[in-house]
Design brief:
Layout (H helix, E strand, L loop, with lengths): L1 H23 L4 H10 L1 H21 L4 E9 L11 H7 L7 H9 L2 H11 L3 E6 L4 E4 L5 E8 L6 E7 L4 E6 L2 E6 L3 E4 L2 E7 L9 E6 L2 H11 E4 L7 E8 L2 H59 L6 H9 L1 H25 L17 H20 L8 H45 L5 H35 L5 E9 L8 H26 L6 H7 L4 E6 L16 H16 L7 E6 L6 H13 L5 E5 L7 H4 L8 H5 L5 H4 L1 E2 L6 E4 L8 H5 L2 H13 L2 E5 L8 H5 L5 E7 L8 H9 L6 E8 L40
Parallel strand pairs: 14-21, 15-19, 15-20, 16-18, 16-19, 20-21
Antiparallel strand pairs: 1-12, 1-13, 2-3, 2-10, 4-9, 5-6, 5-10, 6-7, 8-9, 11-12, 17-18
Helix pairs in contact: 3-14, 6-7, 6-8, 8-13, 10-12, 10-13, 11-12, 16-17
Length: about 800
């Protein structure tokens, strides 16, 4: 019963130790900072390297500049002054897009960019080799490649032009080298080219590298670099931006694009005027011929009838019929014009030509249909620049054009019918007057008929001349639909790379990379590096920690010793009182997972520190397979436990003074037996331990690693407590599963962990209370080291 009470007490002590260690863990900012300070040199190196890489990137990267321009478009929809226009736009009764949206698509069109590429030869790039990289040149070039002929589609071709002495040069590409002079013509696989000299700029390099791409590739490339947007839907402005590594080149591209765009807008308007003038010129030729014919008939009539003047009666009749004749003449003129337009509309050759709109101003309905027809026809031609006639939009426009053309013909027919009715009515009125002048001589009546024909033709001739002048004036006054507000201008500084951002990224990378390395080192490391690694892998409590032995001596504990590691062994001696709390508890066994974890070192010094308290202590070297204690203490290992259990030695012969303390004795392992496990199972081993309990106050048993052989488990039945050695940076995390199994299945008595070889450097999590506070007041030669954020502690006394 007493033994059970002791066991329960020890278990509570173990739980106390475990709880204390668990409470210490968590997010400890001091540990994180200390660990980073431990690797300060890594941060210095990587931050310096990151900033150096940022500087090199800024030094040798090619900067890109942003070139911007702005145009304003005359938008009839947005500038409409009709009442209720805003309401109609909000209700979206009409589905037509605004002029601004249409102009944006025109500015993005491939045909417009292709014209810019051809005008500026953007498919040819010139490079000069520098000390580190090639740089492109565009404006200040001493030479130009003028392509007299170039293939439509070609792969990228690279040329090298070496400028030699005496105005000679050499052109080489893909194994072809040709020597020539300026302005010579070369026949190359890509086409025919002429090398021209630009005298405005001097030759700054002896070698120029030239890259030639296809027109299609260059057009696609610059279309991707161009951005056209509408900044405000309430305004009719368009913003254009282009990115390029050469500011002057980008400005020239953007300005040339705007120039071609404005010229195309004016050309569209001039085409309508030119079509009207061409129609009028054609009609003038016909009317002039007819008027000349009538005038010749009048001349012949007067000559043949010897008529010098009209009679007074004829004057009177003419004056009476002047009003009817005037109205009849006007209607006949209109009828003639309508018939001409009707003939023009029936001609299938004019199906895709604009309809003259300035000949009949009296009928607003007809003018509206003509204007709509011409606008739709121009929109169709503009779409055909980038689409085919099979495009659904183009087909839809064809259907609309057919419908509008039918409406024009119907309107002309209705207009012609109305004019004909008016003429018939006027002719009936004229017939009544004609009846009255039958008495007039027939010759004079014939003369009046000629005069009437002359008046009609002359009126028509004057009308056509007037309209031609009006069309010519309107052509000279045509302006583009848009106006340039801001021409292309580059930003003063490149928009990429951004220097501040690059340096920030370099600095962050210099901090993040070593931080990740430190984190992964702890996360993916296979060996134990800190206390949390132990707590995460085993429930066995940690009894104590032993620092790194820098002196490389076996015995670090002495009566006058005040070193930190000596104080740590004294702390183990104190903690053992809580474990060996039962009456008769005195056997402490030390084991580990594998060789090299410091069992012999800890066992020897633990025995030494116990003997310093005045207790009789026995140190047993029970690692029968690889004994080390006797070797380190320079003992003769010819007799020992192995010779005792087989009866070749007596107990008095194997118990030897250790030479460390007069209270410490040693039982060596003896010669290495062939069957260590069988020796431990002998009954004589049981009697030996029972007898030794009566002779000594403490018995420290150094055993073989439990992770390799079963010797420690066989000796576990004789022990009252088990100290399991774990070495920082040496023991594998997976080996802690052995301690977990021993603890949970109670295979070893009162098992506790001792963490050996703890480095007291920052970031490891050990050494709190064991490596920093001791030495004050004990005569320690070396002052205790303090890390950053370390608080001074009071001296610990026994």
């Amino acid at each position: 019963m007493i033994e059970n009470m002791h066991t329960n007490g020890a278990s509570r002590n173990n739980q106390t130790f475990s709880t204390e260690y668990e409470n210490e863990e968590g997010l400890d900012l001091r540990k994180v900072v200390d660990k980073m300070i431990r690797y300060w040199y890594l941060f210095v190196i990587f931050i310096g390297g990151g900033l150096a890489c940022a500087w090199l990137y800024m030094r040798y990267s090619t900067p890109s500049y942003k070139i911007s321009a702005k145009v304003i478009v005359q938008d009839d929809k947005k500038n409409s002054s009709l009442p209720g226009a805003e309401i109609l736009q909000q209700l979206e009764i009409f589905s037509n897009k605004s002029n601004v949206d249409n102009e944006v698509e025109i500015l993005k069109s491939r045909s417009l960019m292709e014209k810019v590429v051809r005008d500026l030869d953007l498919n040819v790039s010139y490079f000069v080799e520098g000390r580190v990289k090639k740089t492109e040149q565009f404006v200040r070039l001493p030479l130009r490649l003028k392509w007299l002929y170039i293939k439509d589609t070609l792969n990228q071709a690279n040329y090298v032009i070496d400028i030699l002495a005496d105005n000679k040069l050499s052109l080489s590409t893909r194994g072809i080298q040709r020597d020539a002079a300026w302005n010579d013509t070369f026949h190359l696989p890509e086409g025919i080219v002429k090398i021209e000299r630009n005298e405005l700029y001097p030759v700054t390099s002896q070698e120029y590298q030239i890259t030639v791409t296809s027109i299609d590739y260059a057009v696609g490339r610059y279309q991707k670099l161009l951005d056209v947007s509408i900044p405000n839907k309430q305004a009719s402005t368009i913003n254009l931006s282009l990115t390029n590594t050469i500011p002057e080149k980008g400005e020239m591209i953007l300005n040339k694009l705007l120039e071609n765009y404005l010229n195309a807008s004016v050309e569209d308007k001039n085409r309508i005027v030119d079509s009207t003038i061409s129609f009028i010129d054609n009609r003038l030729g016909i009317v002039t011929t007819e008027l000349t014919s009538v005038e010749k008939d009048i001349e012949q009539f007067k000559q043949s009838n010897q008529l010098a003047d009209l009679s007074e009666q004829s004057k009177l009749l003419v004056s009476n019929t002047s009003d009817n004749m005037k109205q009849l003449t006007e209607q006949q003129v209109r009828l003639n014009v309508v018939e001409s337009l009707e003939q023009y509309m029936r001609d299938e050759q004019n199906a895709r030509r604009v309809v003259p709109s300035s000949l009949i101003v009296q009928d607003p309905t007809f003018l509206g249909i003509v204007e709509k027809y011409n606008a739709l026809l121009l929109e169709r031609e503009r779409l055909l620049m980038s689409n085919t006639e099979s495009n659904p939009v183009v087909k839809n426009m064809d259907l609309q054009l057919s419908g509008l053309r039918a409406d024009l013909r119907n309107n002309l027919a209705s207009l012609k019918q109305g004019i004909q009715v008016s003429i018939n009515e006027l002719q009936r009125n004229t017939g009544s007057i004609t009846q009255k002048i039958r008495e007039v001589p027939g010759k004079e009546r014939i003369f009046l008929d000629y005069s009437r024909q002359q008046a009609v033709k002359q009126e028509l001739y004057l009308f056509l001349l007037k309209k031609r002048e009006e069309s010519a004036i309107s052509k000279s006054s045509n302006i583009a639909i848009a106006r340039v507000v801001d021409s292309g201008k580059s930003d003063p500084f490149p928009f990429k790379p951004k220097g501040t951002l690059i340096y920030i990224i370099g600095f962050i990378a210099g901090v993040v990379i070593p931080s990740i390395w430190i984190y992964l080192q702890g996360l993916l490391g296979r060996r134990i590096s800190n206390k949390q690694d132990i707590l995460n892998n085993t429930p066995v409590p940690i009894l104590a920690e032993i620092g790194h032995n820098k002196e490389k001596e076996l015995i670090v504990v002495g009566r006058e010793s005040r070193t930190p590691i000596a104080e740590q062994f004294r702390a183990i001696r104190t903690n053992l009182q809580f474990i060996l709390s039962g009456e008769g508890d005195k056997v402490v066994m030390l084991t580990s997972s594998m060789s090299g974890e410091g069992k012999s070192f800890v066992a020897t010094n633990l025995a030494a520190v116990l003997s310093l308290s005045g207790k009789k202590v026995l140190l047993m070297e029970m690692d029968l397979r690889k004994p080390k204690i006797s070797e380190m203490l320079e003992f003769n290992n010819s007799v020992g436990f192995s010779t005792y259990v087989i009866g070749k030695s007596t107990l008095e012969e194997i118990i030897k003074p250790s030479g460390i303390s007069d209270k410490l004795w040693l039982i060596p392992s003896g010669p290495i037996p062939p069957n260590p496990a069988e020796l431990l199972l002998l009954d004589k081993t049981n009697r030996l331990f029972a007898h030794l309990r009566t002779l000594f106050d403490y018995i420290i048993v150094d055993t073989a690693p439990i992770g390799l052989v079963t010797d420690a488990q066989l000796l576990g039945r004789f022990a009252d407590a088990t100290l399991y050695l774990v070495r920082q940076g040496y023991t594998y995390k997976q080996q802690l599963n052995i301690t977990k199994d021993l603890y949970q299945h109670r295979k070893m008595p009162k098992i506790n962990l001792i963490v050996n070889d703890v480095k007291t450097g920052a970031g490891y999590g050990y050494g709190y209370g064991y490596g920093y506070g001791y030495g004050y007041g004990y005569g320690n030669d070396q002052p205790p080291k303090k890390g950053l954020f370390k608080k001074s502690r009071k001296p610990v006394t026994k």
